[in-house]
Amino acid sequence: MVPWDTIFIVALYIYIAVTIIYLLMDNRETSSTLSWLLVFIFIPFLGLAGYFLFGRGMRKKITQTLVRQNLETRLQEGHETLVTRQKKEADALHVRYLSPETRKLIRLLYHNSDSILTRQNDLSVFFNGQEKFEVLFNDLMQARHYIHMEYFIWKADDLTERVVAVLKEKAAQGVTVRVLYDAVGNYLSGRYLRRLRRAGIQIYPYYNFISPFKIHTLNYRNHRKVVIIDGATGYLGGMNMGQEYVDGGKRFPVWRDTHIRIQGEAVTVMQEVFAVSWFNTTGEAVDVKSCIPDPPDTITHIQVTTSGPDSQWHAIKQVYFLLISSAENSVFIQTPYFIPDASILMALKTAALSGIDVRIMLTGMLDKHVPYWAALTFIEELLAAGVRFYYYEEGFMHAKTIVVDSRCCSVGTANMDIRSFELNYEINALIYDENVAKVFEAMFRKDMASCREFTMEEYNRMHRMKKLRNSLARLFAPLL
């Protein structure tokens, strides 16, 4: 009779061989393959189960079952003028900016995410939740046709109850209210959901990830924070629905974030993004073309772009890469989490070594430790290249912005990390306007007064055991 230990060893070897072959056949990036291999080895069998739940092997299947964000195709019917005018607008913008890099950015967003260049927009910027939510309350009260909301986090707290009270009132007036939230980012009880639905609020977990038939999609988080009101007003940025985004909550003295309010043509694009999310979740097609108002006369060129498992390309990562690579003078980045992939890392190092002023601001007050530890290993080589790093210490830094050459900027929901680039559903707005870019840059410089600069000397003083801890965290960076 064969001893049990021999059977176990043979089974373990077979398991390792099969998982290696499976990983290789998945043709993922080398770093991700090695990270999952470590999981398989150190957590046998359970690691394989975790791969099917959280790995990316099902991405192709998911993309085949989800409606894609083919925005130009969706906008052709009912918005032909917006689509056909974009080439003319792009040419005019090139004359204004005299920059071949601008032309490349516009073409990139058009090809990798069908992003339409919009022209007639009025833009407001919020750097704190108090101001943003007060304006949002007022806009919600003015709704006449529909309110569409899509949030990663929807907390059942005081702020959200104020919003829910407004939504109930508007639903009672005949306004259609649709809300999507992320199933993993929240726990909303059945009783809570039934209470809102009885009041006329259609609220659902995005794509119902916790369904037994969709559990393999669990790792694909809906990280967007979007509001669309009557097709006239749209919000996007870093702020979720919760009290902590106003006052920092119990964990932080201050919550520093960035959000924008748009009125104009870009809201039409945002509405189509929401329509795809709603259809993928409920199977209901949203038709709101009949109540789209005339855009304002204000000119602010904006391209709204998305990325996620329903996108063909890693669109936002490509935008960040091109923004950094095309910089001639400066790159200012704010992000709470910093786990770049090889392409973004190379772009940042190349820009800094070319003499460009590259500055990255991270949060100095942490909500998660492992991503912070992993980030330190990337920071070391970037410091050596001349990138300057700052830790915001007044509160939690949650803004996701990038400003290049005081000329154009991006704001949205995507962090500077692999999860936002490849796994999450994200939405960003690229803004081609010097006045707006200078507002973002001025805020970056103001935030520096609340920061501590992190230098190579400080990194070198770090204990070797901490550096080892950081290196171990980096091994799992593609999985964070």
Describe the protein's architecture and organization:
The chain is 47% helix and 20% strand. It is globular, with a radius of gyration of 23 Å. The longest helix has 23 residues, at 4-26. The strands form three sheets. Strands 4-3-2-5-6-8-1-9-18-16-15-10-12-13-19 form a 15-stranded mixed sheet, sandwiched between helices. It has a two-stranded parallel sheet with strand order 7-14. A two-stranded parallel sheet has the order 11-17. It is built from 20 helices and 19 strands. With 480 residues, the chain is α/β, with parallel strands linked by helices. The mean pLDDT is 85. It has helices at 4-26, 30-42, 46-54, 59-65, 71-76, 80-84, 86-97, 100-113, 129-141, 158-172, 190-198, 244-247, 265-282, 315-326, 342-353, 370-385, 418-423, 434-447, 456-460, 464-475; strands at residues 117-126, 146-151, 176-181, 201-205, 225-229, 233-237, 255-256, 259-264, 299-307, 330-334, 338-339, 357-363, 388-392, 396-397, 401-404, 408-412, 416-417, 426-432, 451-454. The protein has three domains: 4-57; 68-106 and 117-305, Endonuclease Chain A (Endonuclease, Chain A), CATH 3.30.870; 315-479, Endonuclease Chain A (Endonuclease, Chain A).
